[in-house]
Amino acid sequence: MAKTSTQTAPSTEHFYLTTPIYYVNARPHLGHAYSTIVCDAIARRKRALGIDTRFLTGTDEHGQKIERSARLAGKTPQEFADVIAGEFRALWDRLGLSYDDFIRTTEPRHIRGVQKLFATLRDKGYIYKSTYTGQYCVSDEAYVDGPPGTICPTCGRVTETVSEENYFFKLSAFERKLLQFYEANPNFMQPESTRREVISFVRSGLKDLSVSRTSFSWGIPVPGDEKHVVYVWLDALANYITALGYGSDDPAEQKKFEKFWPADLHLIGKEISRFHCVYWPAFLMAAGIPLPKSIRANGWLLFDDAKMSKSLGNIVRAETIDEVLGADALRYFLLREIPFGQDGSFTFDALVRRYNGDLANGYGNLVSRVVNMMHKFFGGVVPETGAAIEAETALRAAAERAINEFGPAFDEFNFSEALKGLWTLVAEADGYLTANAPWKKPTERSDADHTALQARVLATAAEAIRIATALIYPILPVSAAKVWQQLGLGEIQDAAKQAFLTNLQWGGLKAGTKFGEPAPLFPRAEKDAIDRMQNLENENNASAVDAAAGNKIVAPTPAAEPVKFAEVPKPEAPAEKPAPAAPAAVPAAVPQTAAAPEAQSAPQQLVEEKQFITIDDFVKVDLRVAQILVAERIPKADKLLRLEVDLGYEKRQILAGIAAYYEPEKLIGRKIVIVANLAPRKMRGLESNGMLLAASLPDNPDSTPVLAGFLEDVPLGARLK
Ligand code: ME8
Fold first, then answer.
1. Inter-CA distances, 270 with 79, 83, 236, 346, 444, Å
2. Which of 105, 361, 371, 513 allows an S-S link to 518, with CB 3.0 to 4.6 Å?
């Protein structure tokens, strides 16, 4: 076991890197794409360096959270997981991510491996049975210290009290060993903020960890005691070894494990560092398995000032950006805009600004100018320049600086700096072209001299492009492949395999090379690009595509502010044809958003008819008792409060237009009535899943709305009818 707590020297010929495996309770968004794209870029660079690389991603499919989401969607957990796992995989394929393996925790190979790991830990005396009574956060699938009602420190939700006979892992036995290990391996976890946080967590004392559950069944049965399922984090973390064949009897699988384990890099989001930097190494030490070499945490991608997350509903999909600007634009933005390890905001504006500035007007324009001129002046064949390329010292110096600096910065996860540096080469090449103006022949210059200048300048600029393109390949793989073709260098993948992209030297573009046809790389994004992306997001929300996953439908035209239930429904806007005498019944509880002016002057008869609803209409409205768990103001929204409410069977977020009347803290714990089946809608980038009921005083619309409630104690989730 002593062997496990020393770090193996970094391997030179293998590199095994992993993303977190994503929960299948909702569809992928940009946050997931961010971590996976970073891994993809690293994997591509490692392969280009000639390193035998294995890149693993996958989905985390067990646990109470998935079981509940599936139930809500009316599906079995397996059916539910199949749909969402398929969506993750399809998205990674659409974005061209070069993963070597995609593991699902419901696969037999994983189940077998987890059972072996559990049995090993038990056989070695690190697992024992006892009773756990305490708090559990289902959203994070994490145990939380504190009395009933404790708020989860990670997500801010109220924890649930759990009392179960469980298996426990002797985590407390690893406190000292972990601290020694961190001390001996300062690069094991980074960035520094993560390292500090983890060390202080361990120093504050480790308690034994419950590693099985009995109150639900969607998990991997504990071998020999099948009424228990393995704790979902023990199950999930093991994916990094089960995907390499841990637990398999097949010699080929065992070889894979021997070859690639320990992992060189686990890339994770910062919120799951405790699981990766404390629990995972402790499990491995206990099982006698070597520890991964490094764990790197990315910061959070924020949208509308909050972590982009499915539970807040403030998500943007990678598909939208791919559709409008292409996957390379997204990759470039994420790696250039956000210093790795820090939080960074995503906005469509910033994305388009970067795209136009750096890609369309920068690199793309440079390539297009040079390739077009090479065709125009030299029939697309790199002219003979003798030693002329060598003479261009300033550009050559910029290219050599890029060769020397890009790799080390990239390998240190300073992607943003690496790109910034590389773009000085792009700018330098651009300036060089402009200064030499090979397209313009001054009258005093002879034809022969001008042709010589054109040859020298275009060949030199093309050489700078070749170097920039080789370096940028891991980040812009699609565009770099196109440029490689245009430079007449063939398939960039082949060049990558032969280490031509990393073994770079000035002067590699040979005279006589036949350029490919010019093709557009990054067409300038016009003003409507942002609208298109926003519309795609709105349409996607509105089309209820999440139905399979049980996610909510977002109303297609959200109102700026919530409409109170107490308002009299406005009549429907008449269609182009005159309204039918007996219009289709409208569920009274569904508030009408901004009615068209004609609607307000609709015939009186129509208004009156619509004031009655049938009992069938009424029963469509699902009114429920809920309790406010979290209430907070929303930055830059004066009227809205963000509430998290507990319906007993489910927790959810609703937004309510009562910020002017209620101090958020005073609302916590209040029981209210909500419309539970109101179509979700987005306000200020956040999703509201329901509406609270309040009486407004008819004579004074500005007075405080009175929240509906009960004198008696009513259980959460009780239906009003
Ligand atoms: O935590 N910004 O899965 P998950 C940056 N199943 N990264 C983000 C992000 C954001 N706004 N949102 C998500 C789980 N991510 C567990 C992991 S691993 C053995 C088990 C990325 O679906 C980031 O990598 O909640 C984060 O750690 C991960 O997605 C969480 O995905």
1. 30, 27, 17, 17, 64
2. 371
Q: How far apart are CA 641 and CA 655, in angstroms?
A: 6
Ligand 1 pocket check for 307: Cβ under 6 Å: yes
Find out whether 501 and 470 touch, Cβ atoms under 8 Å. yes
Mean pLDDT confidence for 378-396 = 80
Please name the residue whose Cα sits nearest to atom 24 of ligand 1. Answer: 269
Distance 301 CA to ligand 1 centre (A): 11
User: To 10 degrees, the CA torsion angle through 698, 704, 707, 712?
Assistant: -100
Burial class (CB in 10 A: 0-12, 13-18, 19+), 144: middle
* CA 661 vs CA 562, 664, 682, 695: distances in Å: 15, 9, 22, 13
Is residue 20 lining ligand 1, measured as CB closer than 6 Å? yes
Tell me the C-alpha distance between 356 and 657, whole Å.
38
> How far does residue 68's CA lie from ligand 1's centre (Å)?
19
Q: What are phi and psi of 355, to 5 degrees?
A: -60, -50
Q: Could you count the other beta carbons within 10 Å of the beta carbon of residue 163?
A: 10
Q: What is the DSSP string of 572-589?
A: PPP-SSPPPSSPPP--TT
705 CB within 6 A, ligand 1? no
Candidates 298, 383, 258; CA nearest to 34 is 298
Check pocket membership of 675 for ligand 1, CB cut-off 6 A: no
Establish whether residue 500 lines the binding site of ligand 1, counting it when its CB lies within 6 angstroms of any ligand atom.
no
Tokens at residue 425, please? 């080469």
Helical segments of 204-304, H only? 232-237, 239-242, 251-260, 273-274, 280-287
Q: Give residue 528's pLDDT band: very low, low, confident or very high (50, 70, 90).
A: very high
Residue 137 beta carbon below 6 angstroms from any ligand 1 atom: no
Q: Is the pLDDT of residue 388 over 50?
A: yes
Which of 116, 128, 272, 93 is closest to 209 using CA atoms?
Answer: 128
- The letter for the amino acid at 432 is Y
Q: What is the whole-number distance in angstroms between the Cα of residue 32 and the centre of ligand 1?
A: 6
Residues 508-521 have pLDDT tens digits of: 999 999 999 999 99
pLDDT of residue 389: 64
Is 301:20 a contact under the CB 8 Å cutoff? Answer: no
Per residue in 450-466, pLDDT tens? 999 999 999 999 999 99
* Element of type H or E holding 494: helix 492-497
How far apart are the C-alpha atoms of 421 and 402, rounded to whole Å? Answer: 7
Helix (H) / strand (E) containing 183: helix 175-184
565 lines ligand 1 (CB under 6 A): no
Q: Which residue has the tokens 């259980």?
A: 715
Q: How many residues would you count in the chain?
A: 721
Which residue of 42, 57, 59, 60 sits with most ligand 1 atoms within 8 Å of its CB, as the best mutation to test the pocket? 60
Question: In this structure, how many other beta carbons lie within 10 angstroms of the beta carbon of residue 716?
Answer: 16
Position 357 scores a pLDDT of 97
pLDDT in tens, 585-643: 322 222 323 333 333 333 333 333 345 666 766 777 888 999 888 888 887 788 889 99
Closest CA to 394 of 435, 449, 437, 366: 435
pTM given for the model? 0.77
| Predicted local confidence at residue 9, as pLDDT | 46
- Percent of the chain past pLDDT 70, that is, above it, reads 86
For residue 289, give the amino acid letter. I
Torsion-angle region of 697 (φ positive above 0: left; ψ -120 to 50: alpha; else: beta): beta
